[in-house]
Amino acid sequence: KSIVNRCRPEVQYVLITKTAPKSYYGHTAPGTDDKVHATVIGKNGVSTNRMRLEAPGIFDNPFSAGATDTFTVEDYFDVGAIDCVQFDIGGKDSWVIDRAEVQSPSDKLNVYTTERVLLSTDASEAPSYAKLCRAGAAGYDVRVKTSDDKYSGTDRIFIRAEIEGGKGTTTTSLLDNNVNKGHLSEYHYEDLANVGKVNCITLTAYPNGKDAWKPSYVEVVALYNGNVVNMNNVDNQFMSSDTSEGVSVLKLCK
Question: What's the rounded Cα separation, in Å, for the pair 169 and 201?
């Protein structure tokens, strides 16, 4: 339920959204010019009111493909420990979200879409809302080295990583889709599931990438236990959503 008490001072929330890159959802443009609202949901079930995410300046264009946007909004209630955030869209457009962060005076939440999540006002296309919730309380640093070999870089591939350990798996948001050969990409993730001792990582190339990429190695640091695992592409395999160019799924283990 939503609680409003206008006798209380307003509580400030900061929401950071990452829109999926161009072509990620095929012919559907991931960005939107329509209204996007957010509702922050606490672990106790209490939620904020539905809050409009508006551009800070009249010439800003939020929610464009691949963009990271920051919004400061206010509500009359602090939900305490944050469990989920729900986004909804209005108008005649659609939006594809990749990840989001919510900050409040009491807590911070990071959420990641483990599959392609489309919000649309056309019910035949997709729901108009998406509820994204905390996967866990674990943090990871992930470093991905693109091979130094010729043609190893890419300018259009859509990769997610699934970290695997003795306690299960957890999935990241999209990795960079435009990297040169020899580049080292670094990612920091919070609020993912604790997989225990990390053993492997599985990289999956989603459709519409249309370009090959060859990783050299992936290093995962589990911040909850300091475990550092290096996993090499020992077979020197290329990845691509086009199986004539490379494999669409690549599992690397220590």
Answer: 9
Residue 92 DSSP label = S
Block residue for tokens 């190695």: 217
Amino acid at 23: S
Compute the CA torsion angle 163, 166, 169, 172 (nearest 10 deg): -30
Quick check: helix, strand or coil at residue 200?
strand
Express each pLDDT in 47-76 by its tens digit: 999 999 998 776 678 999 999 999 999 998
SS3 for 132-159 is EECCCCEEEEEEEEECCCCCCCECCCCE
DSSP bridge pairs for 201:
163, 252
Give the whole-angstrom CA distance, residue 98 versus residue 156: 16
Query: Amino acid identity, residue 96?
Result: V
